Amino acid sequence: MASAGPSAASTQPDLPSGPAVFKTIPYAFILPEIVCGTWVWILVAATSVSLPLLQGWVMYVSLTSCLISLLLLLSYLLGFHRNSENWKVLDSLYHGTTAILYMSAAVLQANATINSEFGPNAPLNYQLNCAASFFAFLTTFLYILHAFSIYYQ
Protein backbone atom coordinates (compact mmCIF):
# COMPACT_ATOMS: atom_id res chain seq x y z
CA MET A 1 0.00 0.00 0.00
CA ALA A 2 2.84 2.38 0.68
CA SER A 3 4.02 2.07 -2.93
CA ALA A 4 0.54 2.85 -4.30
CA GLY A 5 0.64 6.39 -2.86
CA PRO A 6 3.71 7.68 -4.72
CA SER A 7 2.72 6.04 -8.01
CA ALA A 8 -0.76 7.59 -7.80
CA ALA A 9 0.79 10.98 -7.09
CA SER A 10 3.15 10.70 -10.04
CA THR A 11 0.28 10.08 -12.48
CA GLN A 12 -1.34 13.41 -11.64
CA PRO A 13 -0.53 16.12 -14.17
CA ASP A 14 1.81 18.89 -13.06
CA LEU A 15 0.45 21.38 -15.58
CA PRO A 16 -3.24 22.24 -15.47
CA SER A 17 -5.49 22.23 -18.49
CA GLY A 18 -9.07 23.30 -18.98
CA PRO A 19 -10.80 25.28 -16.23
CA ALA A 20 -8.20 24.10 -13.67
CA VAL A 21 -5.88 26.76 -15.11
CA PHE A 22 -7.89 29.45 -13.30
CA LYS A 23 -7.55 27.63 -9.95
CA THR A 24 -3.83 26.83 -10.04
CA ILE A 25 -1.08 29.22 -9.01
CA PRO A 26 0.85 30.60 -10.98
CA TYR A 27 -1.32 29.92 -14.03
CA ALA A 28 -4.21 31.82 -12.47
CA PHE A 29 -2.12 35.00 -12.91
CA ILE A 30 -2.38 34.83 -16.72
CA LEU A 31 -5.89 36.28 -16.94
CA PRO A 32 -5.14 39.27 -14.62
CA GLU A 33 -1.93 39.86 -16.63
CA ILE A 34 -3.98 40.06 -19.81
CA VAL A 35 -6.63 42.34 -18.27
CA CYS A 36 -4.14 44.74 -16.67
CA GLY A 37 -1.96 44.78 -19.79
CA THR A 38 -5.01 45.58 -21.88
CA TRP A 39 -5.76 48.52 -19.60
CA VAL A 40 -2.22 49.81 -20.11
CA TRP A 41 -2.47 50.05 -23.87
CA ILE A 42 -6.07 51.34 -23.80
CA LEU A 43 -5.10 54.13 -21.40
CA VAL A 44 -1.97 55.06 -23.32
CA ALA A 45 -3.92 55.07 -26.58
CA ALA A 46 -6.51 57.38 -24.99
CA THR A 47 -3.91 60.06 -24.29
CA SER A 48 -2.49 62.45 -26.81
CA VAL A 49 0.85 60.71 -27.13
CA SER A 50 3.28 63.57 -26.62
CA LEU A 51 6.38 61.39 -26.35
CA PRO A 52 5.97 58.81 -29.15
CA LEU A 53 9.29 57.09 -28.57
CA LEU A 54 8.59 56.42 -24.89
CA GLN A 55 4.94 55.57 -25.16
CA GLY A 56 5.47 53.66 -28.40
CA TRP A 57 7.61 51.20 -26.45
CA VAL A 58 4.92 50.98 -23.76
CA MET A 59 2.29 50.22 -26.40
CA TYR A 60 4.53 47.64 -28.10
CA VAL A 61 5.34 45.79 -24.87
CA SER A 62 1.79 45.84 -23.55
CA LEU A 63 0.12 44.79 -26.79
CA THR A 64 2.65 42.09 -27.65
CA SER A 65 2.64 40.69 -24.11
CA CYS A 66 -1.14 40.72 -24.04
CA LEU A 67 -1.39 38.75 -27.28
CA ILE A 68 1.30 36.22 -26.37
CA SER A 69 -0.23 35.73 -22.90
CA LEU A 70 -3.61 35.18 -24.53
CA LEU A 71 -2.10 32.51 -26.78
CA LEU A 72 -0.42 30.92 -23.77
CA LEU A 73 -3.70 30.91 -21.84
CA LEU A 74 -5.50 29.29 -24.77
CA SER A 75 -2.71 26.71 -24.99
CA TYR A 76 -3.22 25.80 -21.34
CA LEU A 77 -7.00 25.77 -21.64
CA LEU A 78 -6.90 23.47 -24.65
CA GLY A 79 -4.16 21.26 -23.17
CA PHE A 80 -1.53 21.76 -25.89
CA HIS A 81 1.22 21.35 -23.30
CA ARG A 82 0.50 17.61 -22.91
CA ASN A 83 2.13 17.85 -19.49
CA SER A 84 5.58 18.39 -20.96
CA GLU A 85 8.25 19.70 -18.63
CA ASN A 86 9.44 21.98 -21.43
CA TRP A 87 6.27 24.06 -21.04
CA LYS A 88 7.32 25.02 -17.52
CA VAL A 89 10.67 26.23 -18.84
CA LEU A 90 8.99 28.10 -21.71
CA ASP A 91 6.46 29.67 -19.34
CA SER A 92 9.14 30.70 -16.85
CA LEU A 93 11.40 32.19 -19.53
CA TYR A 94 8.51 34.04 -21.16
CA HIS A 95 7.21 35.52 -17.93
CA GLY A 96 10.68 36.42 -16.66
CA THR A 97 11.61 38.17 -19.91
CA THR A 98 8.25 39.90 -20.09
CA ALA A 99 8.60 41.09 -16.49
CA ILE A 100 11.89 42.79 -17.40
CA LEU A 101 10.41 44.35 -20.54
CA TYR A 102 7.32 45.48 -18.65
CA MET A 103 9.48 47.06 -15.95
CA SER A 104 11.23 49.13 -18.60
CA ALA A 105 7.86 50.08 -20.12
CA ALA A 106 6.44 51.01 -16.71
CA VAL A 107 9.40 53.28 -15.95
CA LEU A 108 9.09 54.95 -19.36
CA GLN A 109 5.36 55.39 -18.82
CA ALA A 110 6.03 56.98 -15.43
CA ASN A 111 8.45 59.36 -17.16
CA ALA A 112 5.80 60.19 -19.76
CA THR A 113 3.35 60.82 -16.93
CA ILE A 114 5.72 63.30 -15.29
CA ASN A 115 6.28 65.05 -18.63
CA SER A 116 2.55 65.26 -19.36
CA GLU A 117 1.78 67.12 -16.14
CA PHE A 118 2.16 70.55 -17.73
CA GLY A 119 1.43 69.79 -21.40
CA PRO A 120 -1.64 70.59 -23.48
CA ASN A 121 -4.85 69.10 -22.05
CA ALA A 122 -2.78 68.54 -18.91
CA PRO A 123 -5.42 67.38 -16.41
CA LEU A 124 -6.97 64.68 -18.60
CA ASN A 125 -3.72 63.39 -20.11
CA TYR A 126 -2.02 63.42 -16.73
CA GLN A 127 -4.82 61.38 -15.15
CA LEU A 128 -4.84 58.88 -18.01
CA ASN A 129 -1.05 58.58 -17.87
CA CYS A 130 -1.20 58.10 -14.08
CA ALA A 131 -3.67 55.26 -14.50
CA ALA A 132 -1.55 53.73 -17.29
CA SER A 133 1.53 53.91 -15.03
CA PHE A 134 -0.35 52.24 -12.18
CA PHE A 135 -1.52 49.38 -14.40
CA ALA A 136 1.93 49.05 -15.98
CA PHE A 137 3.56 48.56 -12.57
CA LEU A 138 0.74 46.23 -11.47
CA THR A 139 1.18 44.14 -14.62
CA THR A 140 4.94 44.05 -14.03
CA PHE A 141 4.31 42.76 -10.52
CA LEU A 142 1.96 40.05 -11.85
CA TYR A 143 4.54 38.89 -14.39
CA ILE A 144 7.23 38.79 -11.69
CA LEU A 145 4.95 36.79 -9.38
CA HIS A 146 4.18 34.36 -12.19
CA ALA A 147 7.83 33.88 -13.13
CA PHE A 148 9.00 33.28 -9.55
CA SER A 149 6.03 31.06 -8.71
CA ILE A 150 6.99 28.72 -11.56
CA TYR A 151 10.64 28.84 -10.53
CA TYR A 152 9.84 27.87 -6.93
CA GLN A 153 7.21 25.29 -7.86
Automatic annotation (TrEMBL):
List localization entries.
Membrane
Stretches that traverse the bilayer: 27-51, 57-80, 92-112, 132-152
Pfam hit, one:
MARVEL
* Superkingdom in the source lineage: Eukaryota
Check the record and name the InterPro entries matching this protein: MAL, Marvel, MARVEL-CKLF_proteins
Does Glycosyltransferase show up as a keyword for this record? no
Query: What is the membrane topology here?
Result: Multi-pass membrane protein
> Among its keywords, does the record have Transmembrane helix?
yes
What is the predominant subcellular site recorded for this chain?
Answer: membrane
- Enumerate the GO terms in the molecular function aspect: structural constituent of myelin sheath
CC terms in the record's Gene Ontology section: membrane
Keywords per UniProt: Membrane, Transmembrane, Transmembrane helix
Which processes are annotated in GO (biological process)? myelination
Q: Which residues form the MARVEL domain?
A: 21-153
PANTHER family for the chain: MAL-LIKE PROTEIN, MARVEL-CONTAINING POTENTIAL LIPID RAFT-ASSOCIATED PROTEIN
Q: What is this protein called?
A: MALL protein
Q: Which organism is it from?
A: Cisticola juncidis
Specify the taxonomic lineage.
Answer: Eukaryota, Metazoa, Chordata, Craniata, Vertebrata
Q: Which gene encodes it?
A: Mall
